[in-house]
């Protein structure tokens, strides 16, 4: 069996760090351009216009499009038939090394500090940093590595709803949270909104962040009723009178994505995450022969990932 070369893992991880920091995914840029056409607020239109100009300058100069390069993290999807040279401990080390290298070479702002002592290693690497989340895929011999650079301070909320709250309770939570984000400057709008519904408290938060960061604009949940709710929440979010960066307008939400998990019979936990207005993500697929294919769609939520049955 051919093993995926560890040097290719590190090379791919460094490259997606660079792409995520500098290049806006086409799906997100197109979504912003569409919002600009319908934006009603003067200041909001100005902000969106400035965003687009900044992205173009960043791409031409090959520099990060935002001074705050967020908290880099990884999502790794490993094929069931994949084998990595020196194993998965070496893979994690390669990801950490690529993070440190990217901090110097891209460059990324060294944002990671110890929560108590505020000590800074200067390379975005430390205890439990960068985060690495794993998933698996049957009948595949490749490994997908996705990096996401998401702000780590605001743009997230959680609430324990109950079955009786129903769809109306979900809508109220989303609108309450969007208004709070806009009024208090807790997110950079317009943004992709991710909603995690169900699961346990921790997995609910994970689902919401993944929904925001790992699905592309225009993608719909395969459940038709959830897909309808995604569309409705996007429309509602853009009808609250707020636009870019919380100014008066109609462009809070580029898209809305919902992911669900079976939950406790007595509850309906919900989380909401606002991705950065830069929507910083990039993916590399590494094959056993060492070849690497880059793309902007993480393709994280496969049918296997969303399976409901015991066996596949």
Automatic annotation (TrEMBL):
Keywords, sorted A to Z: 4Fe-4S, Iron, Iron-sulfur, Lyase, Metal-binding
Keyword hit for Ribosomal protein: no
InterPro entries on file: Class-I_Fumarase/Tartrate_DH (IPR051208), Fe-S_hydro-lyase_TtdA-typ_cat (IPR004646)
Family annotation (Pfam families): Fumerase
Enzyme Commission number: 4.2.1.2
Signal peptide start-end: none
Source superkingdom: Bacteria
Enzyme type, top EC level: lyase
An annotated Gene Ontology molecular function: 4 iron, 4 sulfur cluster binding
All residue ranges annotated as the Fe-S hydro-lyase tartrate dehydratase alpha-type catalytic domain in the record: 11-284
PANTHER family listed in its UniProt record: FUMARATE HYDRATASE-RELATED, L(+)-TARTRATE DEHYDRATASE SUBUNIT ALPHA-RELATED
Family: Belongs to the class-I fumarase family.
Listed name of the protein: Fumarase alpha subunit
């Amino acid at each position: 069996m051919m093993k995926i070369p560890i040097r290719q893992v590190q090379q791919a991880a460094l490259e997606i760090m660079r792409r995520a920091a500098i290049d806006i995914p086409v799906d997100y840029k197109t979504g912003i351009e569409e919002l600009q056409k319908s934006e009603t607020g003067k200041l909001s239109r100005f902000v969106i216009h400035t965003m687009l100009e900044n992205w173009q300058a960043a791409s031409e100069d090959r520099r990060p499009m935002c001074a705050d390069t967020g908290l880099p993290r990884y999502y790794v999807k490993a094929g069931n038939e994949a084998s990595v040279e020196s194993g998965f401990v070496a893979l994690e080390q390669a990801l950490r090394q690529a993070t440190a290298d990217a901090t110097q070479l891209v460059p990324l702002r060294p944002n990671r500090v110890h929560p108590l002592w505020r000590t800074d290693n200067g390379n975005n690497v430390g205890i439990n940093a960068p985060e690495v989340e794993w998933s698996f895929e049957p009948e595949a011999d490749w490994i997908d590595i996705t990096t996401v650079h998401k702000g780590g301070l605001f743009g997230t909320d959680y609430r324990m709803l109950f079955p009786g709250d129903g769809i109306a309770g979900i809508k109220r939570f989303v609108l309450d949270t969007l208004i709070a984000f806009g009024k208090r400057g807790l997110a950079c709008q317009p943004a992709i909104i991710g909603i995690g519904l169900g699961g346990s408290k921790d997995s609910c938060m994970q689902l919401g962040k993944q929904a925001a960061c790992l699905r592309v604009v225009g993608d719909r949940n395969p459940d038709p009723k959830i897909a309808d709710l995604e569309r409705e929440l996007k429309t509602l979010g853009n009808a609250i009178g707020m636009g870019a960066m919380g100014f008066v307008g109609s462009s809070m939400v580029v898209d809305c994505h919902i992911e669900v998990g079976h939950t406790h019979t007595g509850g309906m936990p919900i989380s909401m995450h606002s991705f950065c207005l830069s929507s910083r993500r990039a993916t590399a697929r590494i094959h056993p022969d060492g070849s690497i294919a880059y793309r902007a769609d993480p393709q994280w939520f496969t049918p296997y990932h969303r399976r409901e049955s015991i066996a596949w």
